[in-house]
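Chapter review: from sequence to fold.
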Amino acid sequence: MTPAEQETSSTAKAGVRYFLASLVALVIDYLATLFLHHGLGLALSVAAGLSLLVVGLIFYFVHEFWTFRRSTSALSVRRLVANLVVLVISGALRVAVIFALEIWRAPEGIWVTLYFLAGVACSFTANFVLNRFVVFRD
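The C-alpha cell string follows.
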C-alpha cells in the first residue's frame, strides 16, 4: 500500500471510529442538555454549550486512546489544550446556531430536539475536522 493509500485508509478508519464515539457522546450530550435546560432552567443554547464542553473534555481521552490512536498515543497536555480550544470553537458555533433559532421561535416540545440537532450538525462537523487535522494530526 502506498503512503497516500495508507493515509486515506487511516482517515477512513478514524472517521468510522469518530462516528461511533460521537454517537455515544451525542446521547450523553443530549441527556445532559435536556437536564440543564428542563431540570435547571438554563436557556437551551447555554445548556447545549455547557454540555458540549463537559462531554467534549471527557471524550478527549476516547479520541486520544481510540478514535485517533497512534503508536505514540499518550496523555498530552498540548493536545488536551488544543482539544479545549476546538471545543470552544465548535461550542460557540453550536450556541450561535441554537441561539439564532431561539430568537426565531421559542424552543418548546419537538423544537428543543430540532434546535439541538441543528447545533450538533454544525459543531460535529467543525469538531471532527479540527480534531482530525489539527489536534490529532499524524
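Two observations follow directly from the output. The mean pLDDT is 87. The helical segments are 3-39, 44-67, 77-104, 110-135.
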